[in-house]
Write a structure and sequence with these properties.
β7 and β8 form a beta hairpin. Helices cover about 0% and strands about 55% of the residues. With about 525 residues, it is mainly β.
């Protein structure tokens, strides 16, 4: 198949530094967590709207074509990709209407409404549509429709948030040349995904000096083949300062997953974890120790964690070293949203392993940096292999014991409020036990981004990305795929207080790249449109 494909977006995240303050609730402090690796998920960072007084709102979307086909294969919960902010607006409006059209017959419609007129209450909704097709291949098309609503309420000591969303994703298999007698509807997979979340947390500490936070989530996914996957999860945590600079935390989580295949067979899995933690903070020195206990059906695992951080010199250099064991629940939904060309044959295996890391980060003037090296061992690492009997479809396979060495570096430079640069890279050295290569995982991923705001009228954004070659599989044999060097440019013009125009050029070099073997992405593509804020 000789059609070209496309790459798109760079996303967000640059580690920052925060100082804990007294008498703040746990939700007022940014907690540093390991980033879950798919680069599209970077959009979830920074969803809070600073104008909404401690209540999260729905975050605007960033459209690059196609935004979810180019998920960069970061290792789950291992790496922290860097990328540019999702969208920068020049005004302070929270509601808008956005429309555009692109070269790949790509209509874009997005509507967002946020209401803050009622004291202590915020609510709103969002809808967006984005789709694209190829003039040469009838099957090379996708469509996405998303709708969601949220509500947040703040009281004197507690805040609550709830949100509901529905996503409808449509993909067509085009990994081989289909005869004219095949209708594209015969090779279509339509994914319907429902999500509901509710969380409650304290804003101020209670009389006992305890911080608490809890949330419950539910999703239900069903695709065109009547495969069904649903999940219910509950998380709760409490924290208390027992002595000056000494803290104890207790975290509890429960995850239930149920999967039904095309034959009606069901697989269910329940994981329950409890994590008592002790933390000590004093004069630039931070120590954390944790002993977690996880029950996975009838199997039990002890998950220790220890981490030491030391501020070496006035935030110019902060050194850290740590070691932990982890246990992750893997689901069909997680894999299908990453790779929409999965076969209906699915075996669920949870992954577990250990990680040892050493890091150094800091900030000097307007420059911030983060360096980290890690050694990991992952049992049952999930890989995407081409189905030997239907190469255009993929199966999820699990390597027995994979060793991963990672080198991560990122940095950011803010020349002024109008000019910012960011750069990041990850080297991964995979040593799988049972397969010749870590299929569809690139060893190197790097990116560079720049944003320039010209007099609050014109906004320029440049994204550059590079990926080394990954490997697909042909009847179990490793096949080298093309690497990628790509450039994307976006310009927006603030015509008036309410109206702005935007234009983007993606994959300017029209690089051929196969995120998934036999599925090249679109070549050069552009998108133009307008945005009305109110």
């Amino acid at each position: 198949m000789k059609n070209k494909l496309k790459y798109c977006a760079l996303l967000l995240l640059l580690p920052m530094f925060s100082v804990a303050q007294e008498d703040l609730g746990s939700t007022d402090i940014i907690v540093e967590k390991e980033f879950e690796g798919i680069i599209e998920d970077a959009r979830k960072i920074g969803v809070a709207n600073p104008d909404l007084d401690n209540v999260d709102s729905i975050s605007p979307s960033q459209y690059d074509l196609p935004k979810y086909w180019m998920d960069v294969p970061y290792e789950k919960s291992k790496l922290r990709p860097v990328a540019m902010p999702e969208e920068i607006t020049l005004g302070g409006y929270n509601s808008y209407f956005k429309a555009g059209f692109g070269t790949q017959l790509s209509p874009l419609v997005e509507i967002m409404y946020n209401d803050r007129n009622v004291k202590n209450l915020v609510f709103g909704f969002k809808y967006d549509h984005f789709s694209a097709s190829s003039s040469k291949t009838d099957f090379k098309r996708f469509s996405q429709n998303s709708a969601g609503t949220y509500m947040g309420y703040s009281m004197k000591k507690v805040k609550m948030n709830t949100a509901f969303s529905f996503d409808r994703l449509v993909h067509h298999l085009y990994g081989k040349e289909y005869p004219d007698s095949i209708d594209r509807l015969d090779v279509r997979n339509k994914i319907r995904d429902f999500q509901l979340t509710y969380d409650i947390a304290n804003i101020k500490k209670n009389k006992s000096g305890i911080d608490f936070n809890s949330d419950i989530g539910f999703y239900y996914l069903k695709d065109e083949r009547d495969i069904r996957d649903y999940n219910v999860n509950f998380n709760a945590s409490i924290s208390k300062e027992i002595f000056d600079d000494h803290f104890v935390d207790l975290q509890f989580s429960s995850k239930y997953n149920n999967f039904k295949d095309v034959f009606g067979n069901e697989l269910s899995n329940t994981i329950v974890t409890i994590r008592p933690t002790y933390r000590f903070d004093f004069a630039g020195f931070n120590f954390l120790s944790e002993i977690g206990l996880t029950a996975d059906e009838k199997l039990y695992y002890i998950l220790p964690r220890i981490e030491i951080k030391r501020n070496l010199f006035d935030n110019y250099a902060i050194a850290s070293i740590g070691w932990k064991k982890f246990h992750d629940q893997n689901t069909y939904r997680e894999y299908l949203l990453e790779n929409p060309y999965l076969t209906d044959l699915f075996i669920s295996n949870n992954s577990r392993g250990s990680k040892l890391w050493l890091g150094l980060k800091g900030s000097v003037g307007k420059f911030s940096y983060n360096l980290e090296g890690s050694l990991q061992q992952v049992k049952r690492l999930a890989l995407f292999e081409n189905n030997p009997f239907q190469p255009e479809e993929f199966i999820v396979s699990y390597d027995g014991n994979t060793k991963i060495q990672n080198i991560h570096a990122d940095g950011g430079l803010s020349i002024s409020d109008d000019l910012q640069f960011i750069i990041g890279m990850d080297y991964n050295f995979y040593d799988p036990e049972k397969v010749p290569k870590a299929f569809h995982r690139s060893g190197f991923i790097g990116n560079f981004g720049a944003i320039y705001n010209l007099r609050d009228k014109i906004l320029f954004r440049l994204d550059l990305v590079g990926m080394s070659s990954a490997y697909g599989s042909d009847a179990g044999e490793a096949v080298k795929l093309n690497g990628l060097v790509d450039a994307n440019l976006e310009v927006s013009y603030q015509f008036s207080e309410y109206l702005s125009f935007f234009a983007s050029m993606n994959n300017i070099a029209s690089q051929k790249h196969e995120r998934w073997m036999f599925y090249p992405t679109y070549g050069f593509n552009g998108l133009i449109g307008a945005k009305f804020k109110y």
